[in-house]
Every structure is written in structure tokens, then in C-alpha cells.
TrEMBL record:
Coiled coil: none annotated. InterPro entries: Leu-rich_rpt, LRR_dom_sf. One of its GO terms (biological process) is SCF-dependent proteasomal ubiquitin-dependent protein catabolic process. PANTHER family: F-BOX PROTEIN YLR352W, PARTNER OF PAIRED, ISOFORM B-RELATED. This is F-box domain-containing protein. SUPFAM superfamilies: L domain-like.
Amino acid sequence: MGHSNVRWLVISNFSQVVHLASPLEGLLLHKLKLSHCNKIKTISSLASLTSLQSLKLVYCPEIRDLSPILPYSSNLTKLDLSGSKRITAASFSNVAAHFTERMEQLVVDFSHRIQLATISMPINRWNLKELGAVCCDIVTPNITILTSSLVKLDLEGCNVTDAILQVISRNCVILGDLSLKECPLINSNSLTIINNITTLQKLSLSKCLKIKECDITLPSLSEFEICSTKITQFKCDSTTLKTLDVSGCTSIHLQPFIQSISSSPLQNLWLKGIPLSKDLLESISLNCSNLRILNLTGVIPLDVDYFAEGIAAVAERCLYLERMYLSSSPGLEATIQQIEDNFPMITITCL
């Protein structure tokens, strides 16, 4: 390749490539992504890429040694080691000690040998804004990586205890995006601590099966996902909520919440696979005046005779509605055609 103007390179699904050769030399790359390169064992050829700012080694399971990135580790702003199962805590720590305040995004999803506790040592020199640690070992609340600079934190599938939530609440003073999806220890009582993270704008509690009652009072929450849980009662501060996804919550009693949010900013409502009563459908048509997207695929109509009339009422009254998702049904064809004729601004997708 020689000297080139290439700044961003993706090498993906090279299942037979064992090592990266010299053609990378001379490139002034700023971003490099190696994805699903199953046989690459060494990244020694990356040592020459001293302009690199973003490095993603995604599902390259044979890579063990990170030392080749040491020459430019102080320049990195983003590092993604998702699925790097052979990178040890010692190898990571050797490089992490050279990270500086430029490091803003770190992803170690499914990197089981890198414990978050081992990342903590050099954190005082970082300015980490995003941390992804899906299904990682998070064994102690004394994790200094959970710092005041974090804006986005993904702990999906981790054993997040109430003690760890307390650390997040106390330390992460500007945190805006938190995913606790499928965290097995999160329960209804944990929500009291989560409500103390008042800067949150986006929250996911999907598949947290120990949550039975949901009462969220976050003043700035804009997007809330709590899919496939066993919740029955649902309350949420509605003054800022724009997106709500309760798909798969088959025991949820949502109608009182919808009835209480007249003139709310709610724009996107996802109700896939939940029981849908006449009262709930009526409340949507009367109270969700700012609705843009409504997903009703797989819902279980509790009043089959009213369902077609109900979705027609939603189309008529929700003046900003742009898209509606429904399950294919011969009984709805006439109603769908009527909506499309009378409200051409609404796109209906039948799945």
C-alpha cells in the first residue's frame, strides 16, 4: 500500500488469516477494526501504526498479547476488546498503565479474563466517558473505574449488586446512559438506588427477572426499556419520557400509567407481545397525543371485537403518528386500508 490517505480500515471475517503482514506499514491510520479474525494470534504489525486513535479487536479469540500497541497507547481514545477471550488481566494492565486522559471509550464485553478490578489501577489518569463490560466479572463495589467522567455504562449480564449500584450512584455524577439488561441480582428494591442516579436519560432493565414492581422517578429519563420482565405494576415519571419499551411483559398492568400521562412527550411506545385491553388501547388514543411510533406486533387483544376500532381511533387521534407495527391478520385488512387511505402520513408495517 505504501503511504496512503487511508484513515479508517476494517478487516472482517478473515477466518484463514494467521497474521497481519507488512502492507499495514506506512499507513497513517486513525481507526482500525479487526472483526472475527479467528486465527490471528499476533498484532505485532500494528506497532507501526503510531497515529492510531481507535482500535477494535472484536472477537479475535486467539490474540493474547497487547504489547504491540504500547508505542501509541497514549494516543488511543477508543479501545474495544469484545470477545478477546485470551487477553489476560496482566497483559491488559501492562498496556492500560500507559493510557492517558485521552482514553474515552473502553469496551471489554465478553472478555472474561479481564476483571474490572484490574482496570482500576491507572484510572486516575483517564477521562473515561464510556465503559462496556457485558458479561464481565464485576466482583467488588470498590471499583474505581466507575468514575465521575462516565457518561455511558453497559453492565449487561453482570452480577450487579446493590452495593455496586451505590458506587455508581455516588461516583458517576454525570452518567446519562445505563444498561443493566439481564443482570440477575437486580430486583424491585434496587430501583430505589437507581432512582438516585438523577442524571440518567437512558435506562435498560430488560430481562431483570427479579423486578416485580417498577416505580421510576428519574427526572431526566428520556428512554426506558424494561422488556421481558415479570413486572405487574408500572409507574414512571412521565414529564420527560419519549421512548418506552415494555415488550414481552405479559403480566404488566400499563393502563393506569398511560391514563396518567396526558400531554406527555411520549413519542415511541413498544408493546410487543403484551395483553392489550380495550381500556389500554383507548387510553393510548386519548393520552398519547405526541406519539410517532407504536409497535403492537404480537399483542394479545383482550377485546378482539374492539381491536380494529381501537387502532383506527389511535390513527385518528394521534396526529403526529408516523409508523404503526402490527401482526398480520385477515381481520385487520379493511381497517388498515382505511387508515392508509385517510391518513397517508402513517406507514403501517405488518409482520
